[in-house]
Amino acid sequence: MNKDTIVSELQFKAVRSSGAGGQNVNKVSSKVILSFNIANSSGLSEEEKMLLLEKLANRISQEGILQLSSDEDRSQLKNKEIVTKRFFELLSKSLKKPKIRKETKIPKKVKEKRLQEKKKSSEMKESRKKPKF
């Protein structure tokens, strides 16, 4: 993953935001929408593209564009920084490969202890029965 190339491929769009800001909300476009086309990116390898398309399938449009938005702050610049930071966190989290689970063996002592407990409870229940003559 080449961050510099990816940053140059990002597209930003400013739109009017809802929320805090009073009358300023109606005049200023402070919400920022980040768009990133995964398929056409030259900053990602083919393997990384496939991994992202698989893991972020529910966040990607039919055209293969990943969109994130931020309207947390009243400043357009701060919202741009927030959405860019969130984008790179999402990318790095999605590109991490999960560790392969190694099967562990149940120790012999644990098996023996379990069998002893079973035997003990069986004997206890057996002792509750009426004796047969």
Architecture blueprint of SSEs:
Layout: H1 3-9, E1 11-15, H2 24-27, E2 31-37, H3 46-55, E3 65-70, H4 76-95, H5 108-128
Antiparallel strand pairs: 1-2, 2-3
Key terms for this structure?
elongated, 5 helices, Double Stranded RNA Binding Domain, alpha+beta, single chain, Pep_chain_release_fac_I, hydrolase, 14% strand, 3 strands, three-stranded antiparallel beta sheet, 133 residues, hydrolase activity, Aminoacyl-tRNA hydrolase
Q: Give helix and strand order, one letter per element, not per position.
A: HEHEHEHH
Indicate the mean pLDDT.
Answer: 87
Task: List low-confidence stretches.
Answer: none
What is the third-level CATH name, the topology of one domain? Double Stranded RNA Binding Domain
CATH class of one domain: Alpha Beta
User: Helix fraction?
Assistant: 40-55%
User: Strand content of the residues, in percent?
Assistant: 5-15%
CATH architecture of one domain: 2-Layer Sandwich
User: Which descriptor suits the 3D outline?
Assistant: elongated
Number of strands: 3
**What is the end-to-end distance?**
82 Å
Structural class per helix/strand content?
A: alpha+beta
Main beta sheet strand tally, sense and closure: 3 strands, antiparallel
- Helix tally equals 5
The main sheet orders its strands as 1-2-3
Radius of gyration over alpha carbons?
29 Å
Pfam family, one: RF-1
GO molecular function: hydrolase activity
Protein name: Aminoacyl-tRNA hydrolase
Keywords: Hydrolase
How would you explain this protein's 3D organization?
Residues 16-32 form the Prokaryotic-type class I peptide chain release factors domain. InterPro entries: Pep_chain_release_fac_I (IPR000352). Residues 113-126 have a biased composition (Basic and acidic residues). This is Aminoacyl-tRNA hydrolase. The protein is of the alpha+beta class. It has a domain at 3-95: Double Stranded RNA Binding Domain, CATH 3.30.160.20. 47% of the residues lie in helices and 14% in strands. It contains 5 helices and 3 strands. A 3-stranded antiparallel sheet has the order 1-2-3, covered by helices on one side.
